[in-house]
Design goal:
The complex is a heterodimer of chains A (252) and B (366). Chain A is of the alpha/beta class and 252 residues long. Chain A folds into 2 domains: 6-81 and 159-251, 3-Layer(aba) Sandwich (Rossmann fold); 93-156, no CATH class. Chain A contains 9 helices and 10 strands. Chain A has helices at residues 46-53, 75-80, 97-107, 112-126, 141-153, 171-186, 198-202, 221-228, 233-251; strands at residues 6-17, 20-31, 35-40, 61-66, 69-70, 82-85, 159-163, 190-195, 206-211, 214-219. In chain A, helix 3 (97-107) packs across helix 4, helix 3 (97-107) packs parallel to helix 5 and helix 4 (112-126) runs antiparallel to helix 5. Chain A is globular, with a radius of gyration of 18 Å. Chain A starts with 5 loop residues before the first strand and ends with a helix. Chain B is of the alpha/beta class and 366 residues long. Chain B folds into 2 domains: 2-40 and 168-360, no CATH class; 47-150, abc type-2 transporter like fold. Chain B contains 14 helices and 4 strands. Chain B has helices spanning 2-17, 19-39, 58-69, 85-90, 104-110, 125-147, 168-199, 201-206, 212-240, 250-274, 278-295, 308-313, 318-332, 340-364; strands at 47-53, 73-79, 96-100, 117-120. A 4-stranded mixed beta sheet of chain B has the order 2-1-3-4. The two termini of chain B are 24 Å apart. The chains are: A alpha/beta (252), B alpha/beta (366). Chain A binds chain B through residues 54-58, 76, 79-80, 82, 84, 86, 88, 90-95, 99, 102-111, 151, and chain B through 2-3, 5-7, 9-10, 13-14, 17-18, 199-201, 203-210, 365-366.
Amino acid sequence: MSESAFAVETKDLTQRFGRFTAVDRVTMTVAKGEIYGFLGANGAGKTTTIRILCGLLRPTSGSAFVNGHDVIRYPERVKAGIGYMSQKFSLYEDLRVRDNLVFFGGIYGLGRERIEQRIAEITSATGLTELLTRKVRGLPTGWKQRLALACAVLHDPGIIFLDEPTGGVDPVSRRTFWDFIYSLADAGKTIFVTTHYMDEAEYCHRIAIMYQGRILMCDSPSAIRESTGDALLEDAFIRLITRESDTETGGD
Amino acid sequence: MQRLRAIMKKELLHIIRDVRSLTIIFLLPLIMLVLYGYAIRLDLKNIPLAVWDADNSQESRELIRAFTHSGYFTLTLHAITPVDPLEVFQERRAKSVLAIPVDYGARLHDGRAIPVQFLSDASESNTATIAGQYAEQIILSRLMSRFGTDAPLPDVRALVLFNPELESKVFVVPGLVAILFMMICALMTSITIAREKETGTLEQILVSPVRTAEIIIGKLFPYMFLASLIGVVVILIAIFWFGAPFVGSPLLLAVFSIVYLLCSLAIGILISTRVRTVQVAMMAALVITMLPSIMLSGFVFPIASMPLPIRILTHIVPARYFLVIIRGIMLKDASLYLLRFQILPLCILTFILLVVSIRRFRTTLE
C-alpha cells in the first residue's frame, strides 16, 4: 500500500459527533505534487476532514490513506510524513522565533545539525532570518503565519495540510505566503488546503466544494466555472450550494 | 530521546522566560511559609488565668509565679475568696481557673497528695486542652524541682516527647512543605497543559509523531526540578529560620518527596484533561489540592478525631501520607520500616494517578 500513487486517498470517510454528521461519505484522491483545495463555508466539514487525515481524529467509518499509510491503523506513520498548520497559527508566543523552530524540529526527531540546516533554508525562503531572535508575541500576523508554516514544514514533509492558513492576513502577506506554497509544490510537495477565500481557491490545481460534510464537486477552478457558466468562482460556488440546498428542501 | 529533549527544553524556556510567574512560584511558598509559620500558632501564649488561692501561703504564691513566669499564662484575677469558674468564663475574664486548696502549703510539706484544681473554658476546646497540658507541665516541674524524681507524678502525655515546648511551628512547617509541594506541582502542570490547549499548540504537538509518554515526561521533568528546588528552599528556611529540627535521613526524604511530587504532578495532568482554559485549570487545581491537603491531611486537624466517613475519605488525600513521612523523618528520624504504612499507600496512589492521568490525557485529545 505504501507505493500508492496518491498522496491522499479516502473512501466513504464519515465522521459523526452524536447525531451531527460533520463529514459525510467523502471519497477523494489527491495526486502527489498537487495543490488541492477544500472550499466551503464555516462548518462544512473542512477542518474535521483535515483533522482525520492528520490522525487527530478517529473517523466513525470509511477509510483514509495518507502517503500510502492507513490513517486509522497507523496514525504514527502518517504523522511523521505530514506537516500541519492549524487556523490559529499555534505558536509559542513567549518564545523567540528561533525557539519555536527548534522545538518543532525537535518533536519530529530531527538532530541538532539537521535543525540548524533546515532553519537556515526555510528562514531564507520565507524571509524570517532577520527575526530569528525576536519574540513571537508582537510580530505582525503575516509574519506569524509565515513562521507557523515554517514550523510545519521544517521536517520536510511530503504533504502539507493547511487549515485556513490566511485568516486575518493582509493581501500582500497572503501573496507572499502563496508564493512560498508554490515553491513547495514545485519541489514536489503535496499541498492540502482549506479556505473560504475565492482568490485563494483559484491558486489551487483542483478544488473540492464542500457543503454539509459532502463534496459537491471536485475539479479545477476553471472547469468548475465552466460547468456552471459563471465567470467568477464565487458565483459558481454560490450557484452550486443554492442548487444543493434547493434540492434538499424539495426532496423533503 | 530527541523529541523528549525538545519538549523538556521548550518547557524550561517557558519557565525561564516567564519571570513574573517564576517570581510568583517562588514567592508564594515563602509568603505561605511566613503566614503559616507565624500566624498559625497552635501553641498559646498569655492565656488569661484566674486564681483562687485559698491557701495564700508562700508555697501557693510560688506556684502562681511558676504559672505566670512560664509565659503561657497571664494572671487576670487573683482572689483569696472563692471564685466561681462559670461566672469567670461567662464574663470572659479568664480562660482557665486555678484553684489552690487551703492546706496546699501544709500538704506540700508533708508530702501528701495535693488536690489542685485546674479548670478550662472548653468552648474553645483546643485552647482548653493545650492550657491543661501546660498546667500539667508546670505543676509537674514544680514538684520535680522540690522532690526530684520521687515526686508524686501526674500522668505525662506522650505528645510532648518530640516537641517538648509544644511549639506548633515545629510541626506546622514540615506539614507546610507537604501542602506547598502538592499545590505548586498540580497548579503548574495543569496550567501548562491548559495553556497549550488554549493556544492550540497542543494540537500542533499531537499532529507530530511524539508519543503521549514523551509529552508528559517532557513536561513533568522541568516542573519536578523546579518543585524540588522550591522544596529545598522551604526546608532550609524551616530549619534555619524557624528552627525546625531535621534529625532524620535527607536521602530518605528526597526519595519520597519525588514520589509525592510525581503524585501531585499526575493530579495536575488529570485536572488539565478535564478543563479547556488556564483560568479554570488554576481554580480547579487550587480547590482540589489546597483544601483537602490542609483540611483532610492531618495538617491542622487530627485525622483520628474526624467522623468515620471523612476519615475514610482522607485515605485518598496524598498529603495525608506525605505529612506523616516528612514529620517522621524531620522530627523523629523515622526509618523506612516505621513509615511503611505511609509509603506503600502513597506509592500505590501515585502509580494509579499516573496511569489514569496518562490514559485520560491520550483519550481526551482524540
